[in-house]
Fold this sequence. Notes:
Layout (H helix, E strand, L loop, with lengths): L4 H8 L1 H8 L11 H19 L12 H16 L5 H19 L31 H5 L1 H9 L4
Helix pairs in contact: 1-2, 3-4, 4-5
Amino acid sequence: MYVTTEEFEQQVGTNETIELTNLDSPDADSINLPRLELAIKEASSEINGYLATRYSIPLTSVPSYIKTYCIDIAWYRLAQNNAPEAYSERYKNAIARLKDIEKGVMLIVDENGIAASPRQEQNSLVDNRGFPLDDWTVHSGECKTNFENLNLY
């Protein structure tokens, strides 16, 4: 998980965390830790879904902005259908930035300014021009042969 329950509580505030984790019990006076932990776990998994296209996950060094995205996503999930517009906007912004990371528009950079190394491509097979081959082309010798025989230039 990219944030702890303590980090979430510190960022969001104790009273709001109590309220968010106890939507079905408005008189509760303590944080529902299992519910908070589940929201953070789900947010971390969602983040990993975006990051896995470029980086080995989970990240070993977590930049502060990834922690913020995790909090924003968990906050939105906890609010469920009652999320105020501010929660929705923070969620949408976090997802937009994660999509930028997924596309390579934005990099994972640690607190020292060092960019994380992208994971190595799984498919290292290339055609005679250096373009990666997809699995179908690799397993279909006839298609590969036909492709290489095309005079495109």
